[in-house]
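In this supplementary section we document a worked example of the pipeline. Step one takes a protein sequence of length 93 as its only input; no multiple sequence alignment statistics are reported here. Step two produces a three-dimensional model, which step three serialises into structure tokens for compact storage. The input and output of this example are shown verbatim.
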Amino acid sequence: MSDLNRETVLVRNQELVFTDMDGEFIMLDVQRGLYFGVGGVGSRIWEILQQPISIGEICQLICAEFEVDEDKCLADLLGYFPRLLKNNIVRIL
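The serialised model returned by step three reads:
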């Protein structure tokens, strides 16, 4: 997934069943029988991904809400999203 960049537009997989458990999201892929959980900033990212949005826009929102340097945030997001894509949690539009 090295082709991810600021302009890449992502959206969460609408086929996943999910619930909020005290700020942590638990997602279930019914077709594959797998579940995943995210907390902290990951939960906020899951909320943001309700609508299609670019990685750069996600970075701006995270930087505004959390004390993080933009370059560090972007690097972290570019390292985080390949795992979500691999597990079919998010999709590239």
